[in-house]
Design brief:
The complex is a heterodimer.
Chain A (H helix, E strand, L loop, with lengths): L10 E6 L2 H11 L3 E7 L4 E6 L6 E6 L7 H13 L4 E5 L3 H10 L4 E8 L2 E7 L5 E7 L4 H13 L1
Parallel strand pairs in A: 1-4, 5-8
Antiparallel strand pairs in A: 2-3, 3-4, 6-7, 7-8
Chain B lengths: L8 H18 L7 H7 L4 H12 L3 H19 L4 H7 L5 H12 L3 H7 L7 H8 L28
Helix pairs in contact in B: 2-3, 4-6, 4-7
Classes of the chains: A alpha/beta, B mainly alpha.
Chain lengths: 154, 159
C-alpha cells in the first residue's frame, strides 16, 4: 500500500446555480451548518457541513473563470438535467427525515425503500443535484452480501 | 430565500423535464401517463414527447422501457421471483412483451441474464444508474458491414 499521508476527505464541491438558494436548501432543509461564507472578490467561498462531522460541501457556483461561457452553459445544462453526481447522507431516523423533507415540499425522487444494507430515499436540490439519505442497518458488508446471495438462492 | 432561481429557458425546461422523468422513475410500473407528466413539466401533452426527446435523447416510452428493464434486471439478479412475476412487477402486462423487450434491450433473455449475473451489494441507486441498459446493448441483428434490421415493434404503443 502506498503511504501518501492523506488523512481524510475534507471538502467536496457541489455545482450550484445560485449560492443563496443553495445555502437555504442545505441549511434550512438538510440541517447543515455554514463553515465558511467568504467573499474572496473573485468568488464566494461557501462551505457547509453536517454539525459534528468534518467533511464539508463547497457550494460552488457554476461559471467561474475555469469555464468559458460555452462550457459553463453545458455544465448548467447537465446539472439541471440531473446528469451530474450526488451527495450521500446518513440519518439516524430516515423516516422522520423523509417526512420532514416531504412536508417541506422538497422534491422527492424515491420514497424510503428497505434495502439489505438499510433504508434510503432520494431527493433533489433546487438545481437538480441528487441527494440520497440512508439509514444503514447493523449488517456488516459480508452480511449484506450474504443477504443478497440468500435472496437469490432460496 | 428571496428572488426566484434564475434559469435560462433551456435550463428551466431541463429542470421541469427532470421532475417529469423523476415521476416516471417513481411510477415505472404504471402505464405511461403523458397528461400527468406533461402537467408536471408545465407542457401540453402534445409537446411533452418531443421536448423529452430533445432533453434526454429518447422518447418517454423508450425511457420507461429501459427503466422497467433495469428494474427487472435487479429483480432477476437479486431475487428468485418467477420471471412472470418480475414482468408483472415492473409494469409489463404480458410475459411475451416483457421477454421481447428485455431481449431487445439487454441482448439476453431474462432467464439467460439471471443465470449469468449474481447479486451485488452496493446501494440501490447505483445499481439503478449503472445497470440501466443502453440502446447499443441490443443484440446485433446483422453482420458487420451489412444493413441492420430495424427493431421489431410489437408493442402496440411502441414509439
Amino acid at each position: 500500500m502506498t503511504t501518501n499521508h492523506i488523512t481524510s476527505l475534507h471538502i467536496r464541491s457541489v455545482p450550484v446555480l445560485d449560492q443563496d438558494e443553495a445555502l437555504d436548501f442545505y441549511t434550512t432543509h438538510l440541517g447543515f451548518e455554514v463553515r465558511d461564507d467568504i467573499d474572496l472578490g473573485f468568488m464566494r467561498w461557501l462551505t457547509v457541513g453536517v454539525p459534528g462531522q468534518d467533511t464539508s460541501l463547497l457550494l460552488e457556483l457554476v461559471g467561474g473563470p475555469q469555464h468559458d461561457e460555452s462550457t459553463a452553459a453545458q455544465v448548467r445544462e447537465l446539472v439541471t438535467k440531473g446528469a451530474l453526481g450526488g451527495v450521500f447522507l446518513l440519518s439516524d431516523d430516515v423516516h422522520a427525515t423523509y417526512a420532514a423533507l416531504r412536508d417541506a415540499g422538497v422534491e422527492v425522487t424515491q420514497e424510503p425503500v428497505e434495502q439489505p444494507y438499510g433504508t434510503d430515499f432520494g431527493i433533489r436540490d433546487p438545481f437538480g443535484n441528487h441527494v440520497r439519505v440512508s439509514q444503514p442497518n447493523v449488517a456488516a458488508p459480508e452480511q449484506v452480501q450474504d443477504a443478497y446471495d440468500a435472496a437469490a438462492t432460496k | 430565500m428571496g428572488r426566484p432561481l434564475q434559469l435560462s429557458a433551456k435550463e428551466d425546461i431541463n429542470r421541469r423535464m427532470l421532475r417529469a422523468r423523476d415521476e416516471m422513475d417513481r411510477r415505472y410500473a404504471e402505464p405511461l401517463d403523458v397528461p400527468t407528466l406533461a402537467a408536471i413539466a408545465h407542457l401540453s401533452a402534445s409537446q411533452f414527447g418531443r421536448v423529452f426527446k430533445d432533453v434526454y435523447g429518447e422518447t418517454p416510452h423508450r425511457y420507461l422501457q429501459r427503466r422497467r428493464v433495469e428494474r427487472a434486471m435487479t429483480l432477476l439478479r437479486q431475487t428468485d421471483r418467477p420471471i412472470t412475476d418480475v414482468a408483472w412487477d415492473v409494469g409489463f402486462a404480458s410475459l411475451g412483451t416483457f421477454s421481447r423487450t428485455f431481449s431487445n434491450i439487454v441482448g439476453l433473455s431474462p432467464s439467460e441474464f439471471r443465470a449469468q449475473h449474481a447479486p451485488v451489494a452496493v446501494p440501490s441507486c447505483f445499481i439503478a444508474t449503472w445497470t440501466r441498459p443502453r440502446e447499443q446493448q441490443r443484440r446485433p441483428t446483422s453482420e458487420p458491414g451489412t444493413t441492420a434490421v430495424s427493431e421489431k415493434r410489437e408493442d402496440p404503443d411502441a414509439d
